[in-house]
């Protein structure tokens, strides 16, 4: 009557249930504001006006002889280039 079977005992299986609780940790982020003033050179133009009085000496006017009217231009031209220095 004692025909009982001895039970087999298996190793336990672990089932882990994780639970989380929040804990506040301060994280500080410093912010530095920099006010910069950048200096750039901008040209500002000024104009200084002057007046000059120039006297132009016409020199001696060579008069051509009435018999040779073509010589008048040549005489003036040679006199003009000689005094041009």
Content-based structural category: little secondary structure
The average pLDDT score comes to 81
Measured as a percent range, the helix fraction is 10-25%
Q: Tell the overall outline.
A: rod-shaped
Strand coverage percent: under 5%
The low-pLDDT segments are: none
Distance between the termini: 155 Å
Q: Count of DSSP helices?
A: 1
Compressed to H and E, one letter per element, the order equals: H
Number of strands: 0
Q: What's the story with the biggest beta sheet?
A: none
| Radius of gyration from the alpha-carbon trace, in angstroms | 58 Å
Notes on the protein architecture:
With 85 residues, the chain is largely without helices or strands. The protein is 14% helix and 0% strand. It contains 1 helix and no strands. The longest helix is centred in the last third of the chain and has 12 residues, at 71-82. The chain is rod-shaped, with a radius of gyration of 58 Å. 0% of the residues are buried.
Task: Provide a compact summary of the structure.
With 85 residues, the chain is largely without helices or strands.
Descriptive terms for the model:
85 residues; little secondary structure; rod-shaped
């Amino acid at each position: 009557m004692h025909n009982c079977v001895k039970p087999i005992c298996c190793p336990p299986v672990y089932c882990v249930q994780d639970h989380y609780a929040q804990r506040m940790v301060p994280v500080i982020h410093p912010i530095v504001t920099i006010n910069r003033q950048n200096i750039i050179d901008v040209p500002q133009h000024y104009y200084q006006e002057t007046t000059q009085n120039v006297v132009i000496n016409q020199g001696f006017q060579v008069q051509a002889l009435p018999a040779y009217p073509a010589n008048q231009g040549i005489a003036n031209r040679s006199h003009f280039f000689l005094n041009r220095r």
